[in-house]
Specification:
The chain is α+β, with helices and mostly antiparallel strands. 36% of the residues lie in helices and 34% in strands. Helix 1 runs antiparallel to helix 3.
């Protein structure tokens, strides 16, 4: 299992919960991979954790140094195009939550 290697808090989490539609799976998968690569190049990016079940329910948590870093990612031109495609074709519903991480701890089992 892979966990993002985040620094000592505080930092921020952007939680994107989505329900995939049946449309355009090939384009979705390639764009999702590209978004992961692009986000990793953004100033303030700390990491990501993502899962999707067999029914299309997915949760992606990206971690960021600041609210400004999250805002810049949201406004990234390529990310904006992917967001538009997501609303139009890829998701039947989604929710985004922005949280400040004030404490974290890890089990090494």
């Amino acid at each position: 299992m892979f966990f993002a290697n985040t620094p000592e808090p505080p930092y921020y989490a952007c939680i994107f919960t989505s329900q995939r539609s049946d449309k355009d799976a090939a384009s979705y998968n390639s764009t999702a991979e590209f978004m992961d690569e692009l986000a990793a190049q953004q100033d303030g990016y700390l990491g990501v954790e993502s899962v999707r079940d067999q029914n299309g329910l997915g949760i992606t948590v990206s971690y960021w140094k600041s609210l400004d870093a999250i805002k810049l990612w949201k406004e990234n031109a390529a990310h904006k195009k992917a967001q538009e495609k997501g609303v139009k074709d890829w998701y039947s519903s989604y929710t985004t939550r922005i949280c400040k991480v004030e404490r974290d701890y890890t089990s090494n089992e």
